[in-house]
Write the structure tokens for this entry.
Amino acid sequence: METSQKGGTQSPKPFRRILFANCPADGHFNPLIPLAEFLKQQGHDVRWYSSRLYADKISRMGIPHYPFKKALEFDTHDWEGSFPERSKHKSQVGKLRFDLEHVFIRRGPEYFEDIRDLHQEFPFDVLVAEISFTGIAFIRHLMHKPVIAVGIFPNIASSRDLPPYGLGMRPASGFLGRKKQDLLRFLTDKLVFGKQNELNRQILRSWGIEAPGHLNLFDLQTQHASVVLQNGTPGFEYTRSDLSPNLVFAGPLLPLVKKVREDLPLQEKLRKYKNVILVTQGTAEQNTEKILAPTLEAFKDSTWLVVATTGGAGTEALRARYPQENFLIEDYIPFDQIMPNADVYVSNGGFGGVLQAISHQLPMVVAGVHEGKNEICARVGYFKLGLDLKTETPKPAQIRAAVEQVLQDPQYRHKVQALSAEFRQYNPQQLCEHWVQRLTGGRRAAAPAPQSAGGQLLSLTLN
């Protein structure tokens, strides 16, 4: 039996060939990084199938990269260049329909054909892919390989207890509210996205893969995975009585390597100000007028230190527009460096940033609607981890009032502290290795202690 080598001594833990894969978007790639790095450190042969956009990042991890060949290359930072016809769809619903078809559904067979070809060079034992990677069903059923899907959004599968995913609605409790949820799920799956869901089922069936008519795209993605490792914990998910039996909460997928920028005047700034606000709108959102500018406007010339990280969007222009002493505006600041010193986190609700804020016990003000951020923001508000402004474009006065409320009301910090403690009970990297070994017939690493999810107890102490 092949074994891994660590520290010059032989470990009895079986060595596995593991292929990672993702749809080409930062929010789909980044959550997989800590899993891939950990598995590589454990001595497994880890390789990555992804867009050329991520070739450099994969190379810096010391992981071999297999680029798309038959699969369409596109850049979600440049929608117009990648999909000129997308601009014909003026509404957000129209754009989402287009994305479901062209970004996800039609790519599945292409991913499969690429992976089938690379398998000749790298006969991997298991695929680890984020949940929207539409090659999952093909690899599982046509190549007969186990697939570990990683839930990079809040649990996206449908539930009889919840409104349809994507509307940013909180769960209803009364009879009429639940009936409304039932109707909305039907309308969303059969009418709003009916053509896209049917196209997905037709493509799967044409390859001989089962696709029941009542399951939408992401229900099928969940069903076809061997196991879904859900990013996060039960405390950041709505209770559901029909939690998928193959879904396991993994804990938060946070960066393994804690980075520090030595060139920042951060400590000097921190000594001058009592309260610190961290604001960002991630790397995908390029319009700085949505979150960054109104937050800076709200606190210019105040006694608050505002640390703004732009992701490279309009940094110099913001510095010129807001030269105030109480501002630090940078392309990038490692969250592990600034979050322990911050008092509140203002963002558009990117999942990774929200999970990092929770891990650092940092209450939030969130304002995001598109790209599924309304679902994350709704959970922040529902679980009282902060305030959800329920808009894509908050006004400076709204942001300031929300920040002040979050800091004055101790319930938000207490709630986020409790969830942070729950986060610390999980080890996503070890859990992923456990499932790699379990699904490939190797010696099974110890799994975490039992956890509660959806009102039920899921025992993960598998032998």
User: Anything to note?
Assistant: Residues 36 and 46 are 7 Å apart (CA to CA). DSSP finds 19 helices and 17 strands in the chain. The domain at 17-251+427-440 is CATH 3.40.50.2000 (Rossmann fold).
